[in-house]
Amino acid sequence: MPNRIITAIDIGSTKIATVIASIAEAESPSVIGVATFPSQGMKKGVVVNIDEAIAAIAGSLEAAERMAGLTSSSVYISINGKHITSTNNKGVVAVAEEEIKAEDILRAIESARTISIPPSRDIIHVIPKEFIVDNQGDIKDPIGMTGTRLEVDTHIISATSSALHNLMKCVQAIGLKIDDVVFAGWASSASVLTATEKELGVMLLDIGGGTTTINTFEEDAITYSSSVPLGGANVTSDLAIGLRVSLEDAEKIKINADELMRSPVKSNISEMTRKRERLLNQYTEEEEEKEDKETKKAKDIIDVSGLEINGVKTISRRMFEEIVEARLSEIFDMVIRQVEESGNIAKLPAGVVLTGGTALVPGISKIATKVFGIPARVGMPKGLGGLVDEIANPSYSVAQGLILYAATTEGYKGIRRVTPAKSGGEGGLVGKLKGFFKNLMP
Fold first, then answer.
1. Hey, how many other C-beta atoms are within 10 angstroms of the C-beta on 203?
2. In terms of Cα–Cα distance, which of 77, 80, 81 is closest to 173?
3. In a 3-state reduction of DSSP, which class is residue 353?
4. Local confidence pLDDT in tens for the 442 residues of the chain
5. Measuring CA to CA, how many Å separate 437 from each of 28, 65, 79, 220, 221?
6. Cβ neighbours, 10 Å, residue 174
7. Residue 19's closest CA among 29, 33, 30?
C-alpha cells in the first residue's frame, strides 16, 4: 500500500509555511518537504491583496515540493483572524436500533450543527466534546453502546464567509484542491498540548505575527476558540520606536534576543580576584562600590554589534524588557477580557501554554504567569518524524498541527479513529465518516 502524502500550508500574517509529510501504515507522519516564504497580501489573518497572497502561497508550496521531490494536488490550510468566533451547542437524536452505530453519531452531530448563525458566517468546525446516552454523560465514544437516546455536546467554530472564501480562492487559484480548512488554534493544540493538560484544564495561546489565537480545554474537550488582532508584529513596532531602529532591525533584535541575552557580561575584575584582594586588604570599599556600579551597568548592556545594525552597537536590556513586557501584558489583558466577556469561565489547573513565533521572546512565560496568575510554559510542537530540524520551534506549531490533524482518520479526535484495515475499506464505517466530514466543509 503506497504511503499517504499530506500537504499542509499555514497561511499567516508574516510567513507562509508549507510542510509535506509521508505517512506509512501504522506509523507517525514523516516530514519530507519544508519551506517558509514571507507572507504577502495578508494582514491580521485575512486576505487584503489576492494576487500577492497567491504569489506568496505558490512560492512556499513550490519550494516545499522541490525538497520533497513531488507535486501536491490537495492541501490542508489554516485560517485565523479576529473574525473567528465559537459557541457550544447540543444535538439530540433517537437511536435507530438498540445498539448505537456510526450513523447515529453522524445524525447527532448534524443535529447540533443546525444552529442559528448570521448568513455572513460559515461553520468551519463542529467538534464533539462529549456524548450522552440515555442521560449518562462523559462518554467519548458511544459506538457499540446500548441506548435509545443519543445526545452530543459540540463546540462550533465559525468564520466570516468573505474571509473564508477569499482564503480558499487564493489556494484554489494555483490549482490545488482543499482537503480542509482548519482554525489555527485547533491545529496548534494537536501538536503542542498534552493529554493531561487538556484533561486538567488549559489555555493555549498561539502568538503569531499579526494575531493571537485562543483555545481553552477542560476535561479533554475544547470549550472556547477565538482570536485577538495583536501579535509579534506589534512587539516589533514598539521595539523600533523605543530603541530608535528600523522595523527590520527591531525584528532582528527580537528574533536573536534570547541568544544575545545569554552572552556573558564582561567585568574588569573577576569575582575570585576581588575576593582575594579583599582578604589582603588591597581592595577598598570605595573601589568595590565603584566596581559594583560598573558591573550593574555592564549587565544592562546588550551587545548587538553582530547584527550589523547601522549606527547601533548596544542597547539597554532594561528598556528592551520593559517594552516587551508592556506589549505582551496588553495582549494577555485583551485575552482575559475577551474570554470573560464570552461567559466562558474556564478552570485552568494546567495553566497557560504559549506557542507561535513570539513565544521565543525571552521572559514571555514569566510575563504570562504575572498577568494570568497561573503557571505558564512555552509549548514546542511534537509528533512528527523525518526532516523536523527546520520546524522544531513554536513558530511551526500550526503547520505541524495541520499534519497531525490530517493524519487522524477524520481529523476529529472525538470520533473513534478506525483504520481501513479494521473497517472493511471505504465502504465501511470510515467511508461513511469521511463522507460526513466532507459535508462539514464550507
1. 25
2. 77
3. strand
4. 578 899 999 999 999 999 999 998 778 899 999 999 999 999 999 999 999 999 999 999 999 999 999 999 999 999 999 999 999 999 999 988 888 888 889 999 999 988 888 999 999 999 999 999 998 888 888 988 998 999 999 999 999 999 999 999 999 999 999 999 999 999 999 999 999 999 999 999 999 999 999 999 999 999 999 999 999 999 999 999 998 899 998 998 888 888 877 765 554 445 555 555 555 565 566 655 655 555 555 567 888 888 888 888 888 888 999 999 999 999 999 999 999 888 877 788 999 999 999 999 999 999 999 999 999 999 999 989 988 998 999 999 999 999 999 988 544 333 333 323 333 334 444 444 544 444 344 4
5. 22, 27, 18, 21, 19
6. 14
7. 33
Phi, psi of 141, rounded to the nearest 5 degrees: -145, 100
Which grid cell sits at 100?
448505537
Q: And the C-alpha cell for 399?
A: 503547520
DSSP β-ladder status, 74-79 and 4-11: parallel
What interhelical angle do 285-299 and 271-279 show, nearest 10? 170
3-state percent helix, strand, coil for the chain, nearest multiple of 5? 40, 25, 30
Of 233, 205, 214, nearest to 359 by C-alpha is 205
User: 3-state secondary structure string, 120-189?
Assistant: CEEEEEEEEEEEEECCEEEECCCCCCECCEEEEEEEEEEEEHHHHHHHHHHHHCCCCEEEEEEEHHHHHH
Written as one letter, the residue type at 265 is V
